[in-house]
Design a protein that fits this description.
- This protein has helices at about 10, 15-30, 45-50, 50-65, 80-95, 105-115, 115-120, 145, 155-165, 190-205, 215-225, 225-230, 245-250, 255-260, 265-275; strands at about 1-5, 30-35, 70-75, 100-105, 130-135, 170, 210, 240.
- Helix 5 (about 80-95) links the parallel strand 3 (about 70-75) and strand 4 (about 100-105).
- About 50% of the residues lie in helices and about 10% in strands.
- The chain is globular and about 55 Å long.
- Helix 4 (about 50-65) crosses helix 5 and helix 10 (about 190-205) packs across helix 12 (about 225-230).
- By secondary structure, it is of the alpha/beta class.
- The longest helix is centred in the C-terminal third of the chain and has 17 residues, at about 190-205.
- The strands form 2 sheets. The protein has a 4-stranded parallel sheet with strand order 2-1-3-4, sandwiched between helices. Strands 6-5-7-8 form a 4-stranded parallel sheet, sandwiched between helices.
Length: about 280
């Protein structure tokens, strides 16, 4: 199964583990990712607040290149997915004569094309006993008329997919709450407050870790734990990793190839401990 692949800036920079794990996971699942040549930034997350025309033109360029590879384009970043999907919809509404490309977040693409039974058959590590808080964030599910990604208030795609690893998704109310997004540098106090509320809710729900589908969310929830703990007056330390990392680990992929050793909060130690006690 060959698809055009847009990694996005984060997967090649601050969230290298996202790109590493996405590519390793897809290889294990028989999905051929063909990175689009000479791709450029899609404008996430600020272009749309500065110049509406540019916000569409930037991702439209990537869509045009992707069309030469496949009718399907996937990205592992929720912010990139949101901007690419917005541009694709704008082009369709304007009646553009370019070749249409279906834009999908990698999570949704895998959930639709890989049966959970396939995950169970390929599984090399049993994650039974591991309680996970599946965190979708806001850019993956909203606005619903653009993203068309599951239920915008209570999405369950990630929950169902990761259940095939033996992990147990917890029931919690913060799975689509905003973590502060790109305000991490300009409004760190707001990000600490918002991310802290998410961390606190996940711990109260009994989760051993938070699993994300967005590099911005992953970074905020992991990097701001110290500030959030001081703000809320309690230790809010909890491992935070991408769904590609957790799923890849269950399939037996080398943890270093997945980037699991790159986290500030020790994810690998948590996984090894839970696996030993399963």
């Amino acid at each position: 199964m060959k698809v055009a692949y847009y990694p996005g800036c984060s997967a090649r920079g601050t969230a290298r583990e996202l790109g590493m794990s996405a590519e390793a996971l897809c290889e294990a699942l028989g999905i051929e990712l063909v990175e689009i040549p000479d791709w450029s930034c899609c404008g996430a997350t600020s272009a749309h607040s500065l110049d509406a025309k540019l916000a569409v033109a930037l991702p439209a360029r990537d869509l045009r290149i992707a069309a030469g590879i496949s009718e399907q384009l996937v990205t592992p970043c929720a912010a990139c997915f949101n901007r690419l999907k917005t541009a694709a919809k704008a082009q369709a509404e304007q009646g553009g004569n370019g070749k249409p490309v279906r834009v999908d977040h990698l999570l949704g693409f895998i959930a639709r094309h890989v049966d959970p039974s396939t995950i169970e058959q390929k599984r090399q590590r049993w994650l039974g006993g591991l309680k996970i808080a599946c965190y979708y964030g806001c850019l993956l599910v909203r606005p619903a008329e653009i993203t068309e990604f599951d239920d915008p208030e209570n999405p369950t795609i990630m929950d169902r997919l990761l259940s095939a690893t033996g992990a147990e998704p917890v029931d919690w109310p913060y799975k689509t709450e905003c973590c502060g997004g790109a305000f991490t540098l300009v409004r760190p106090s707001s990000v600490a407050r918002l991310s802290g509320a998410i961390l606190k809710a996940a711990k109260e729900a009994g989760a051993h870790c938070i699993v994300t589908a967005c590099p911005l969310c992953q970074a905020n929830l992991e990097f701001r734990q110290g500030e959030a703990s001081r703000l809320y007056g309690e230790r809010l330390g909890i491992p935070v990793l991408g769904f590609t990392e957790l799923l890849g680990y269950a399939l037996g992929i080398d943890p270093k190839r997945l980037g699991l050793d790159r986290h500030i909060v020790n994810v690998l130690s948590m996984l090894l401990t839970r696996e030993a006690n399963a």
